Each structure stands twice: as C-alpha cells, then as structure tokens.
Amino acid sequence: MPSSTCEAGAPDGVVELALRLGDNALILGQRLGEWAGHGPVLEEDIALTNVALDLLGQARLWLALAGRREGQGRDEDDLAYFRDQAAFRNCLLVEQPNGDYADTTLRQFFFDTWHVALLNALARSRDAEVAAVADKARAEAAYHVRRSAGWVVRLGDGTAESRARMVAALARLWPFTGELFEEDEADRTLAAAGIAPLPGSLRAGWQAEVERVFAEATLEIPASCWMHSGGRRGVHTEHMGYLLAEMQSLARAHPGATW
Amino acid sequence: MTAPRTMPDIALIRAWLDQVPDPEIPVLSVIDLGIVRDLNWAGDCLEVTITPTYSGCPATEVIAMTIEQALHDRGLSSVRLTTTLSPPWTTDWISEKGQRRLRDYGIAPPLRKVAPACPRCGSTTTTLVSEFGSTPCKGLRRCDRCREPFEYFKCH
Ligand SMILES: [Zn+2]
Q1: I need a labelling partner for B32 at 20 to 30 A (CA). Which of A81, A156, A202, B45 fits?
Q2: Domains of chain B: which residue ranges?
Q3: Residue A127 to residues A71, A130, B97: CA-CA distances in angstroms?
Q4: A199 in any annotated domain
C-alpha cells in the first residue's frame, strides 16, 4: 500500500469518494468472479477472471485509502468483509446478476465506458493519493472497455438470437445507468475542491461513446425512462444481500484467517 | 548470518536484486521488470521502494516477500519496504536485457505501435487471439506463418 501521511477524518469527502469507487470495483469484481469456470469459451473465462482480478486490486487500493483517511483503524479487509449492506456505496448497476452473456457484457460495457471517463478525470485530482490510484487504474480500465465494447458489437450485430438477447438485456439494464450521473452534496463538495469531477459532467461523453458503439452493434439507446437510484446511499436491490452473504461468509466465520 | 560491518553500496544491492526472479516470469529479475523504484540508505536501514505492475497482480506480495528475504540472506537485517503507485508502472520500465530474455524464453516482448513478432519463427504477421492470458501481464496471439500460438507481454 502506498505510504503517505494520514489525515484522520479529513473533511474533504475523500472517504466517501474512495468508498464509492472501491465498492463499485469490489462488487463488480465479485460478480465477474462468479463466471470463473463457467465462461462460454476458454479465452472469455480467462478474460472475465482477469478483469475481476484488476477490479479487486483497484478495490483494495481505494478501500485502503478510505480506511487511512477515515482514521479509525479499519483496513481494506475490514471495509470489504465487515460492513453491512446499508454501508455499501456501489451503484446498483454493478450488483445486478450476471444473467446471460448479453447481460454480463452490457453491464460491463456501461460500467467500463463510465469508469474510463471518471478515472481519466480523477487522474488530475488535486488530491495526490486519489490521483495516484486513478492513474494506476485507468490503463486497466482502458483495455477492459476495448474488450466489452468489442463484445457489444459482436453480440448486437451477430445472430438473430444474440441480437434478441442484447435487446432484452438493454431493456433490463438501461434503467440502472442514470445513477452513474447523479449528484449529491458530497459530489458538489469534492468538485468544488478540485478532487473529483461532477458526475453529471461525464454524461455527454459517456452517451456519445455508447451511441458510437451501439451504431456499430445495430442497437439503439432506449427512449428516456424512469431510472433506479439508491446504491450510493446504501439502498440496494434485492440481489445485494445474496452477493454479500457469499462474499463475506468466510471472513466472518473465520476472522483474521490466512492461507 | 551476521550483519555486514559496512553498508554495501546501492549498485551492489541492485546487482543482488537482479538475481531475484519474478515469480510468474522467472527469466525476468525484479530489476528487469522495472518494479524496484528506489534503493536508499536511511541510517543503517535500507529503504526499498517498489511499485506494482497491475493493481490486481497476485504476485505483488510474493515479490515483496522475495525481495526482503533475498536482502536478509545477504546479511541486511534492517530493510523497510514501501510501495508507491506513482508514476504508474508501464511496460516501458522493462529493461533491454529483460526484453531480450523474454524473447529467448518464448514470450514476445511488449512493443509500442508494432505487433509482436512470433518468438519461434520471427514472423511479424500474427493474429490476436485474446488480450487476456495466463497472467494479468500477458495476452495470446497466433503466428500466421508457423501457426503456433504464443504469449506476448501486453503493452501497458
Ligand atoms: Zn511463427
């Protein structure tokens, strides 16, 4: 973990920011890990677990940062395994079930496209530690999105079956994309301090990139609809409890266990 | 082992670490890989600064332990290891010797702008199979001439 000075209880919102980023990476990494041994072809099985591993590594960096800034002696493992559902700050998109390969692919593409834009902005953060983690993570996010965008095109502009599944996945997942651009008081404080971009400022670029890939994939962005919200406030969908139960059970049954 | 009476100079310590293999690609030393950022004497304590390759690379902790162990084996009893993220590691940090060793080992070294050449027959006409391989740092290509699949070190 990076060495640095600890500013216990820094009132700059970095703890909240690092929890949101860390929880997104952790929960999506956990979801992708469920594919291990079940991928449709060997290369994809390996790709998904590699992406999961990158995200887990990023989660570790963000949660370690959150723990240091919080200054209450919690490390990344405490934050990952011993918080309850209402304390998790991830967006609802990443906790949605894997579904079929269209669901997994589209969820990943929406996330990766957003993640790249966010990390690029955070790499210029006025907070040196935030900038360092983002600068490290963005190269990884860049090759994640190359893969997920490629699969959106392949499945969308593929067979009648793959296309039908992508259209169905799109209807299920689109209502979870609005939350990525929501703003609250913490976001405004962070933006005013030059630590993080306003989430809404990423929307136009994200949508343009989704449209570009969708054009190639012969898919269309749905007409505006009602959007789910709540993950960043700790109000999660019914899927989250099961995911946490599986992810946390070992650490809770054997606290401090090592290999 | 007893502590050496004088503190060995940094160049010698660097040469020692050049014999410490990366656990996933053992033909590369931790020096070849470019993850040892700084070596520094702080009084009689050796400060070693390392940087991870990929955020999720499971070898990072093994590497840190291996480095500490190697230095202890050379008689350095006081070693402090710190990790830095910035500037982020890229494949440009791999030494020229490291690039040669990768090729000899059968892994195409990372190249910017040009596609990797087949480590078996040298052909530069190769096809990407997957950007993801057996470890986070490698991908998979196939040679269009000799048809052999091979691993390449991803540009990062
Ligand atoms: Zn060949």
Answers
A1: B45
A2: 10-89, 107-153
A3: 17, 5, 37
A4: yes
Do B47 and B40 meet the contact criterion of CB atoms below 8 Å apart?
yes
Torsion of CA A23, A24, A27, A32, to 10 degrees: -150
Which of A58-72, A144-158, B58-72 bottoms out in mean pLDDT, i.e. has the lowest? Answer: B58-72
Q: Phi and psi dihedrals of B6, rounded to 5? A: -110, 155
Residue A130, pLDDT > 90, answer yes
Per the CATH hierarchy, to which homologous superfamily does domain B10-89 belong?
Answer: Fe-S cluster assembly (FSCA) (3.30.300.130)
Question: What pTM does this model have?
Answer: 0.89
Higher-confidence residue of A22 and A7: namely A22
Say if residues B47 and B38 touch (Cβ distance below 8 Å).
Answer: yes
Assess contact for A150 and A200: CB atoms under 8 A. no
* Whether A139 and B52 lie within 8 Å, measured CB to CB: no
For residue B54, pLDDT beyond 90: no
Distance CA(A42)–CA(B140), nearest Å, equals 12
Give domain status of residue A115, yes or no. Answer: yes
Chain B residues within an 8 Å CB radius of A21: none
CATH of the domain at A81: 1.20.1260.10
Among A136, A80, A129, smallest CA distance to B60 is for: A136
Asked whether residue A8 carries a pLDDT value surpassing 70, the answer given is no
> Could you give the CA distance from residue A230 to residue A155 in angstroms, rounded to a whole number?
30
CB B78 within 8 A of CB B44: yes
Q: Please give the Cα distance from A240 to A97 (Å, whole number).
A: 9
Residue A223 burial by Cβ neighbours in a 10 Å radius (0-12, 13-18, 19+): exposed
Note whether residue A2 is domain-resident.
no
Question: How close is the nearest chain A Cα to the Cα of B75, in Å?
Answer: 25
Structure confidence by residue, pLDDT tens digits, B27-51 = 999 999 999 999 999 999 999 999 9
Rounded to whole angstroms, the Cα distance separating A96 from B67 reads 41
Q: Which residues of A fall within a CB distance of 8 Å from B35?
A: none
Q: Which residues in chain A are closer than 8 Å to B129, comparing Cβ atoms?
A: 43
How many domains are there within chain A? 1
